[in-house]
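Z., the sequence and structure:
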Amino acid sequence: MTIPCKNLRMENKISFRHFQKRAFTLLEIAIVTSILSIIALITIPGLLRTRINANHTAVISDLKVFGSSNDMYRPQQSPPVFAPNVGALTAGNIPFLDTTWNTANAVPGKHNYTFTYSADPNGAAYSMVAAPANIMGVNTYCVDQTSVIVGGNGGGAPTGNAAGCTGGTPIT
């Protein structure tokens, strides 16, 4: 069977035109890109805020664990004293804290917070301050020998020293 040349050319033109209609135009691509950009602009701040809230919750939980660990460490010493440093709580056959606390004072720390421990030389008091290392945290938190966690930001942020925490609002 032979196909006349005229029909073959017509088929090629039809298929070429059909292919052209199936492609996206530059305008259609620009519209889709704009819509996706708008959706991203709406959702990303919410995701960042969720991440910040998760970091705050994790830091508060970690400070509760730290306070409990130091409270368990104290009666096992003779005389009873709080840990002189974080390493005392992470060392030993049965450590009170996991070893991630050894690097918690380096940036980015734990949960994008840096932790700073201060202990009284006599072992009577301590404070652990958690300060945001970057934009993924807002509040500063502190726990001391009273096991009360205080928090705040800006001028109301708590500070800590060897005598304990000062400032901030108690976290329940």
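Strands lie at 113-119, 126-132, 140-144, 149-152, 159-161, 164-166, 169-170. The chain has one domain: 28-170.

Let me know what you think.
H.
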